[in-house]
Amino acid sequence: MLELFFSFLITVVPDYLYRRNKQGKRLGHEITLFNVWYELRWGITSCAVLAITLISVIFYFHPTAINVTSLFRTVTILSDRPGRVAEVYVQNNQDVRAGDPIFRLDTSRQEAAAETARRQIYEIEAAMVLAESELAAAEGNIQAAQGLLRQARDDLTRREGMRRANPNSVSEQEVESLRALVESRQGGVDAARAQRDVVQARKDTLLPAQRASALAALLQAENEIDKATVFAGTDGNVQQFKLKPGDIVNPILRPAGILVPYSSGIGRFQAAFGQISAQVIEVGMVTEVTCASKPLTVIPMVVTEVQGAIAGGQLRPTDQLIDIADRQRPGTIMAVLEPIFEGHADAIPAGSICAGVAYTSRAAEREAGEITGFGAFITAVVDGMGIANALVIRGQALLLPIRALVFS
């Protein structure tokens, strides 16, 4: 409207003044409603061309964004496993700090498993003590078997010596019986040693392995007990939390609630500009926004980030070929805005919907001498045209309460 009014003043008005003063044509007499389009054709045509040109230049170099939002993240309150709630420590809309307990699941089964693992450890430790006694007994059996073996060998040696001295004094059958006895006693020694090795292996290998398995089972059960209590991972406010003792929670099907971090979404806005502004939007541009959650206020901001990719072009592989014609939304250029003055946007709640405008400025290039002559004049004119959008956004800030409260 401002562009059209300005164009009207420098095109239609001079054309009419020329017709009135030079040609003597008066409005309502020679110039009527039926022939005004012909009489003032030059002015009307110039007005239309100039207005379209001004609107195009202003909205290209000073783009507007009707979708400006302070996005914030949420943390889903989940447990590591499904279970029945045993105790709830917080209420809905309550502030929590990182590490504060939120709720606890029933752990009777895990506690029983932990107690079973402890009993197994006690039993294995008692078996290790018993294995020490069995090992000592096995050593004694070896010594006894070795004593019997030495006695049998001595008898065999003595009888063989007597037979060599006097063949008739000792019979061959008696010597063979002693030899068989020596072999039997040797087998007893081997059996005693094997029994000792079995006891030693059970003491050194089997029982420690069983104890390690019982300790692992105890650690697993205690870990499950510890994980049964869900803690807050960050400072925030608990929302949509209606959990009561006895309820069933499931990390896939039924979360417990949502935790909204304090710092998320405060003082940081995301603006969606049209793709035609891709060559204009850049980091450092000054912007202004006005939000419904804080009416009658225009907040100066600056562009701190510009997303290099347009979300409308993202592709996820599927079992069907993608037809580009099926994509209805072309996507926008996303820019991140932050307040120029610290704390100016802290009163705006996270998630607020705002409108904004960005201003192109080539003042630094002109001062540095990078743009001179006619180019400097044109860029100064273009930069000055931003006042039109500045007036528009202030008009929106003034009319927003009326539109929201009266005409909604």
Please characterize this protein's 3D structure.
There is one protein chain. This protein is α+β, with helices and mostly antiparallel strands and 408 residues long. It has four domains: 1-48, no CATH class; 57-72 and 265-314 and 325-402, Efflux pump adaptor protein, beta barrel domain (Elongation Factor Tu (Ef-tu), domain 3), CATH 2.40.30; 75-102 and 229-259, OB fold (Dihydrolipoamide Acetyltransferase, E2P) (Beta Barrel); 108-227, Helix Hairpins, CATH 1.10.287. Helix content is 48%, strand content 18%. The protein has nine helices and 14 strands. The strands form three sheets. It has a six-stranded antiparallel β-barrel with strand order 1-10-13-12-11-14. Strands 2-9-7-4 form a four-stranded antiparallel β-sheet, with no helix packed on it. Strand 11 and strand 12 (294-306) form a beta hairpin. Helix 1 (2-10) runs antiparallel to helix 4 and helix 2 packs antiparallel against helix 4 (41-61). The mean pLDDT is 86.
